[in-house]
Amino acid sequence: MEIGSQDTFFLDSKTAEKYASELRTSDAGYQLQCCYYPGEKLESHLPNLFHLPLETLVPDLAEGRHRIPTAISYEGCGLSAEQMLESNKLIGAAIESAAPLRESLNSISGRQLLQAELDFSEPLRFLLQGHVNTRVMRHVSENIGNALQARGQAVYFRLQNGTEDRFYTRDILDFNPHVTININYLNHIISEDVFNFVWIQDALPWITDQDIEVRLRRRDRVFHLTHYLGDLLVKKGIDSSYQPFCIDHNTYKNRSDVSREDKIVVIGSSYRSQWAGVRSAQKLELCGIVLDHYLQNGYLNLEGREILRAVYSEISSEDMKYICDYVERDLLLKQILSLDLGVPIEIYGYDWELDNDFMPHYKGVLAYGKDISRVYNSSKYTLVLGGYVLQQRTLEAAASGTIPLVLRATEVEDSSSVEKMEDHLVFFDTPSELPDLLGKEHNPDLDGLVARHTYDKFATEIISHVVDAVGTATK
Q1: Residue 75: how many CA atoms within 13 Å on its side-chain side?
Q2: Is residue 305 domain-resident?
Q3: pTM of this prediction?
Q4: Residue 266 phi, psi dihedral angles, 5° rounding
Q5: Coil, strand, or helix at residue 111?
Q6: How far apart are alpha carbons 456 and 146 in whole angstroms?
Q7: N or C: which end of the chain has fewer CB within 10 A?
Q8: Radius of gyration of the chain (CA)
């Protein structure tokens, strides 16, 4: 039998450990294979290897947090065909009987969550969630949680590895949060008493599809990362507040033990995969027109994009965004690399190695946090290309004392953020301006930019909103 990435009950523990160590995934990496085994418990820290004694198989699966297995493997167990057939009947029947019990328990927990009553005279409890497969959102949630904990708040950070039953909520019920904070996710499996903060950072289908109905609770509060996302939410009838990225100033900071060199670093992923996902035969011609606009005139605003889409009718608004992202990040970087800037350029991140043009400058992938900060500390400049100004990398570089050279894409920022931005960043409209910019001395107010965008500030705003709302409700 071909196991693939199926959640599997292995009769042999060592075989289970072997498969678990391969960390097989599906659903673009969001589902990690569950590997169960009976017998003596192994010493292991694998996140997807679970001890499941035969004696308690049914109750353990029924009450478990991880997905129920859909396959049984006899690899390495040494059983005869007759024994395997008999075992398959018994174990299969046990697994089958556990499934409706799990469903019933999950349903009960879900109903209890929806009906939970909260006492706001108690210290506030905050729930945040994340998935190991997300490169940015996971760390954003962790940093918000850390800022809340620094203020003495009780925080449960629910990090998922991809093995979890998506309907399992008993751990949330036990924690019984007063407040939930979510990235891109409404999370309405909560009672009406719960304060629910939702930070929209991506244009997901439930936002872009006008046929998907969205209902907000009275204690929901929504934030948008960019003006573009704010406009999409307005079209859905959702009120939201602008909240740009924040910075963890305990991780991203000036480091005296790192020597700063006269060079440029670029940290972030290539948009090659988004470009590859555009299937229209018109994309090459349109990409050339968009690139020419950026090289001659700078940023292509939303109105200009819609004018082009009217001509290239096969291109959806989503595909248009992907094409512009690819031009801004990948193709403009190629143009910059072709210039004689007089300083070395280093590139870090995912998928750059797939294009030979970047390989002479490519230095690999960096771990989130201190490693990125140290690379920024080693460089006088960083390039910020693509989409909007206050990207996560902009703030990480500024907090690390590195001067951001930023493509002027200010249309996508709220006006309150754009105000006096020239004091904090060095802007350029086209790559041809960079040689002159690098020939001048710059002293932007990096500390001032960082001070306006800390997780501490965001956490304080959330706490204040809850306290004020509860106080008003009890008067």
Answers
A1: 16
A2: yes
A3: 0.87
A4: -125, 120
A5: helix
A6: 9
A7: C
A8: 26
CATH of the domain at 215: 3.40.50
Residue 28 structural domain: 8-115
Q: What's the count of helices (H) and strands (E) in the chain, helices before strands?
A: 18, 17
Sequence-ordered list of residues with C-beta below 8 angstroms from that of 98, at least 6 positions apart, any chain: 57, 58, 59, 61, 62, 68
- Tokens for 263, please give them: 């060079």
Residues 253 and 374: beta-carbon distance below 8 Å: no
Task: Please name the amino acid found at residue 144.
Answer: I
Which residues make Cβ contacts (< 8 Å) with residue 108, sequence separation at least 6? none
Pairing of strands 71-73, 8-10: parallel
Looking at the domain assignment, is residue 426 inside a domain? yes
A 10 A CB-CB count for 315 gives 21
Q: What is the signed CA dihedral for 351, 409, 449, 126, rounded to 10 degrees?
A: -60
- Taking a C-beta distance cutoff of 8 angstroms, is the pair 394, 404 a contact? yes
Sign of CA dihedral 109, 114, 118, 120: positive
Same domain, 196 and 76: no
> Which helix (DSSP H) or strand (DSSP E) does residue 125 occupy?
strand 125-131
Residues 211 and 318 in one domain: no
State the residue for tokens 């950026």. Answer: 294
Q: Are residues 363 and 275 in the same domain?
A: yes
Say how far apart CA 157 and CA 144 lie, in whole Å. 10
Domain annotation covers residue 170: yes
- Rounded distance between C-alpha atoms, residue 278 and residue 47, angstroms: 35
- Give the contacts of 362 (CB within 8 A, at least 6 positions apart): 347, 348, 352, 353
Instruction: Return per-residue pLDDT of the chain as tens, 475 residues.
Output: 567 899 999 999 999 999 999 999 998 889 999 999 999 999 999 999 999 999 999 999 999 999 999 999 999 999 999 999 999 999 999 999 999 999 999 999 999 999 999 999 999 999 999 988 887 788 899 999 999 999 999 999 999 999 999 999 999 999 999 999 999 989 888 999 999 999 999 988 899 888 899 999 999 999 999 888 998 999 999 999 999 999 998 899 999 999 999 999 999 999 999 999 999 999 999 999 999 999 999 999 888 999 999 999 999 988 999 999 999 999 999 999 999 899 999 999 999 999 999 999 999 999 989 999 999 999 999 999 977 888 899 999 999 999 999 999 876 555 555 556 888 999 999 999 999 999 999 999 999 999 999 999 999 999 999 999 998 654 4
Read off the tokens for 464. 């204040």
